[in-house]
Amino acid sequence: MDLKSCGYCKETVDLSVGPHIHDPKKCKKCGQVLPAEAFDLWPSSADGRRHVCSQCVADESAAGRVQRVIEKDKQFRDDKQKLKEHRYRWARRIVQPGPDPVFRWALLDPQGQEVSKEQALRDIDVAENPQPDDYPIH
C-alpha cells in the first residue's frame, strides 16, 4: 500500500492501485478550472500534477525575475553612489591600441591606484564601520 494525502481534494489515496487523477482541476492560485494538461508534471503529487497551473507558475517566475532585476539595479546604484562619495572613479584603459582600439573600465581609488570594485567596497565598509581594538593599549 502506498498511501498519500491528495493536496487537491484532501483525501488519503492509495497510489498502488493507480494514479489519483483530477481532470479538470482548479488552480489553487488563480481559481480557474482547467484541464489536467494545464498543470505541470509534479511526481511528488498524488495526481502527478502541480496544484498551480502552468500560467500562474510562469507569471510568478516572471515577477520574481523582475524583482531580482530591480534589486540588482538598486544595489548597483547604491554601490555607485558609495564609491563616488569616497572619491573612487572609473577610468577607461586602452587594452589594445590601434585604429580600432579596445578599451576596458578600471576603478581607481582616491590615490589613483587600480582596485577591484569588491575590494573598494570592502575598504569603504571598514572605513565606515571601524572595529574596536581587541586588545586596548593601556
Observed structural traits:
138 residues; two-stranded antiparallel ribbon; single chain; alpha+beta
> Major sheet: order of its strands?
5-6-7
As a percent range, the share of strand residues is: 15-25%
Mean pLDDT, nearest integer?
89
- The outline comes out as elongated
Sheet with most strands: 3 strands, antiparallel
- Low-pLDDT runs of 5+ residues are none
Number of strands: 7
SSE order in H/E notation? Answer: EEEEHEEEH
* Rg computed from alpha carbons, rounded to a whole number of angstroms: 28 Å
Distance between the termini: 75 Å
Count the helices. How many? Answer: 2
Question: In percent, how helical is the residue content?
Answer: 25-40%
Instruction: Provide the domain count.
Output: 2
- Assembly form of the protein: single chain
Instruction: Kindly name the structural category.
Output: alpha+beta
Care to give the gist of this entry?
The chain has 138 residues and is α+β, with helices and mostly antiparallel strands. The protein has helices spanning 54-85, 117-128; strands spanning 3-5, 12-14, 25-26, 33-34, 89-96, 102-108, 114-115. Helix content is 32%, strand content 20%.
What does this protein look like?
The structure is a single chain. By secondary structure, this protein is of the alpha+beta class. It folds into 2 domains: 78 residues, no CATH class; 45 residues, no CATH class. 32% of the residues lie in helices and 20% in strands. A 3-stranded antiparallel sheet has the order 5-6-7. The termini are far apart.
